[in-house]
Design brief:
It comes from Solilutibacter tolerans. The protein is of the alpha+beta class. The protein has one domain: BolA-like (GMP Synthetase, Chain A, domain 3), CATH 3.30.300.90. 37% of the residues lie in helices and 23% in strands. It has three helices and three strands; from the N terminus they run αββαβα. It has a three-stranded mixed sheet with strand order 1-2-3.
């Protein structure tokens, strides 16, 4: 799978999110997702929200996805934008 496709899927499922996806082997990926929708949610809930945007591809076409999920405020404090 192409990282650009994963980025599109996450952006479609979390409108307004800023998404960066990296991965060279086609099955293992890393993503940073910045979204207002994460406000007040614990990391596990945030990850589930991202996984939901990918549906059946998780565990299939996408073998592993390492996530960093941030609100815009958290990203700003961390110097990520």
């Amino acid at each position: 799978m192409n990282p650009a496709i994963i980025k599109q899927l996450i952006e479609a499922g979390l409108p307004g999110a800023q998404v960066d996806v990296m991965g060279d082997d086609g099955v293992h990926f890393e993503a940073r997702v910045i979204s207002d929708a994460f406000a007040g949610k614990l990391p596990l809930a945030r990850h589930r929200m991202v996984y939901a945007t990918l549906g059946d591809r998780m565990g299939g076409e996408i073998h592993a996805l390492a996530l960093k999920t941030l609100t815009p405020e958290e990203a700003s404090k961390a110097g990520v934008a």
